Amino acid sequence: MLEPVNVTLESLNLMTLTPMLIPIIGALLILVIDLFKSDLHKSLYVMLSILFLFMDFAVLANTSGVVAQNGTLMGVFNVMHIDGLALLSQFIIVIASMLFIPLALTSNSFHEFSYPEFFALFLFMISGFQFMVATDNLILVFVGLETSSLALYTLIAMHNRDKSFEAAVKYFTMGALAAGFYSFGAMIFYALTGSVEINQIAAVLSANGYADIAYLLVGVVFMLAAFGFKLSLVPFHTWAPDVYEGASAPMAGFMSIVPKIAAFVVAMRIFEFLVHSGIVWLEVILYIFVVVTMTAANIWALVQNDVKRMLAYSSISHAGFVMAAILIGTTQANSALFLYWVLFTFTNLGSFSMLWISRQKHIPIYQASDHSYNKFAGLIKTAPVAATIMALFMLSLAGIPPFALFWGKFYMIASAVTGGYTILALIMALNSAIAGYYYLKLIVYMFMKEPVQGADLYVFTNNASLSLRTIVGVAVMGTIFAFVAVNPLLEFITAFVYNSGY
Amino acid sequence: MEHISTANPYFGVFVLFVLTFGAFTATTIIARLASRAMAAKDTEKIKLSVYECGPEVTKQPNRVSPQFYLFALLFLLFDVEIVFMFPWAVDFKALGWFGFAEMLMFILLLAIGFVYAWKKGALEWHNIK
Fold first, then answer.
1. Where does the pLDDT of residue A456 fall: very low under 50, low under 70, confident under 90, or very high at 90 and above?
2. A414-451 pLDDT, tens digit each
3. H or E element at residue B118
């Protein structure tokens, strides 16, 4: 006879679980509402999603107060692990999602937003990402990864064009492969240390002095491949441009931000103790990853003919840039990672929203693809405001001061120099210069070329509703006035990162 | 010593595992031998000649309805539910109120899925909205 299990509510510490439960409840509510009253307008579901995300945000803010006072919170049999990293990344995830979901309220109607399932899946996906970052347990990371990825594949496929199906199937295949790699790597770590908790794994490995180095390296290789796929680092990036092209612009922008920050946090938890364990091999391979991802993606972006594909390669390059923080591994670098990602969120939100506003139902003959450079030719004459805003985002992505991403790049390179990686800092600076070329190419098209004869002049406003304009306005504000917010933001981030010991 | 290894609660599973491997191999070998022995050997010239492509493709006479996949998925969903409920029922007293609440939540989530599938017409043949 087994001993009766006594579990008290206090020991569960349900506070750690509430931020994830709120979007799940929201998603279930949306599904149930649809069952009993169908054909409701999508704006109701958008508002419900924002409402639940806002509640999520409020609970997170409350939890962050507790964490700032009492340190790391553990809960639900010590599976949930709420530290500063978990909170910061959840803030980014929830805020980015709140900014992306109103993009569903376009003036043209799109197929996918007429389904309430779209919004339910969106909320399920967010809870998946939150689970992924708020735990120390490799199994829960896997469950969160799968929950969010499966929802994301479906959301991409719901755009209902041939290219979207292609994108979803490609992403699914690659994601399945990555999940396989991840679980195999986790299995090896478990076999080596007898634990699935990253803290425990680190403790056991350092206690026995990394004795089983061969097995450990096999596990690390599998983990690297898995996170390479998720973060689209260069040998594993091949899915990214096609998926970005096939997905709708808001989904593509979302994919360039939220899944990556979740994967960055998990990678930070797993790799940082390994990089500084004196296993030179991992440091070298991460170095190569970072340099190759930045440089190769930048060079590929130079030759793209489609703005969305160019932005896809640019976000691969940005991911490589930020990956440097995990290699450097100081508190300063890790804080710079979060700062960079907050600023990148606003800029990329803006540029993908601008693409979404100019989304056409039918592609005219003079355009090779949905968002070819030709479409933006002479935009300053036909739609000066749109051209100026787009140029602003491009300048920010290129890292021109005083716009948002300049500060991100600035702190990242500064942390590389203080961390002792001078050559890496030099490569990062050079890459920013290369990247300037393809961002400026779009500006040249918009400001110096003549519009294509017979072009549809209304294409740049035809999708713009009030909510889309508002989101673009928020992104513009975030991009221009970043210099005011950078210092307090960095202090806030550094306090959290330092408290959680990274 | 051997008493300890057989007393392990997972020993039965291990035996099943070994037997399954044996059974799988045996089935494959038997199937191969049987087909070799019993198949009608037709040594006609045309049959042995090299296959050349280009013939008219015949349409598949009976297409498999996607409803089968849907039913299989729903079956799997509730089958897994039962798999979780058996060990829960066995250890019901030990798990106490905590286990009861967990199981209620689990069933509630699945029930919402069930109502969803029902209302969307997934349980009716050829009537998906």
1. low
2. 999 999 999 999 999 999 999 999 999 999 999 998 88
3. helix B92-119
* pLDDT digit string, tens, across residues A144-171: 999 999 999 999 999 888 889 999 999 9
Of A59, A141, A31, A36, nearest in space to B108 by CA: A31
- Residue B56 is classified by DSSP as P
In the block, residue with structure tokens 């120390």: A136
Name every chain A residue with its beta carbon within 8 A of the beta carbon of B95: 4-5
Ranges of H-type helices in chain B:
2-7, 11-38, 45-48, 67-90, 92-119
**Residue type present at position A481:** F
Task: List, in order, residues 6 or more apart from A157 with CB less than 8 Å away.
Answer: A164, A165, A167, A168, A169
Q: pLDDT digits over A48-66, tens only?
A: 999 999 999 999 999 988 8
Strand partners, A109: none
* Interface confidence (ipTM) of the complex: 0.77
Cβ separation of B94 and A1 shorter than 8 Å? yes
Q: Provide the token pair at A408.
A: 């991100």
- CA of B94 to nearest chain A CA: how many angstroms apart? 4
CATH 3.30.1490 assigned to B2-119:
no
| Angstroms from A139 CA to nearest CA on chain B | 18
CA-to-CA separations, A322 to A12, A306, A385, A399, A408, in angstroms, rounded: 35, 24, 31, 14, 9
The answer to whether the CB atoms of B119 and A35 lie below 8 A apart is yes
**Which residues on B lie below 8 Å from A29 (Cβ)?**
none
- Contact call for A5 and B96, based on CB within 8 A: yes
CB crowding A269-283: b at 16 or more within 10 Å, else e = bbbbbbbebebeebb
- Summarised one tens digit per residue, pLDDT across range B15-39 is 888 898 999 899 999 999 998 888 8
List chain A residues with CB under 8 Å of B119: 35
In A216-350, the DSSP E strands lie at none
| The pLDDT of residue B55 | 64
Residue in chain A nearest B93 by alpha carbon? A4
How far is it, in rounded angstroms, from Cα A240 to Cα A242? 6
CB-CB under 8 Å, B99 with A28: no
> Could B98 and A31 be called an inter-chain contact, meaning their C-beta atoms sit closer than 8 Å?
no
Instruction: Calculate ∠ Cα A380-A435-A470, nearest 5°.
Output: 45
Q: Where are the domains of chain B?
A: 2-119
Return the sign of the alpha-carbon dihedral for residues A73, A75, A78, A80. negative
User: Cβ–Cβ of B95/A5 closer than 8 Å?
Assistant: yes
Q: Give the whole-angstrom CA distance, residue A432 versus residue A294.
A: 9
Residue carrying the six token digits 């056409």: A360
Question: Which of B94, B99, B112 comes nearest A32 by C-beta?
Answer: B112
Which tokens go with A418?
A: 């203080």
Would the CB atoms of B95 and A3 count as touching at under 8 Å? no
* Element containing residue A57 per DSSP (H, E): helix A42-70
The answer to whether residues A132 and A145 touch, using CB atoms and an 8 Å cutoff, is yes
Entry pTM: 0.86
| CA A355/CA A393 separation, integer angstroms | 12
pLDDT per residue as tens digits for the range A98-130: 999 999 888 888 888 888 999 999 999 999 999
A162 touches chain B (CB under 8 A): no
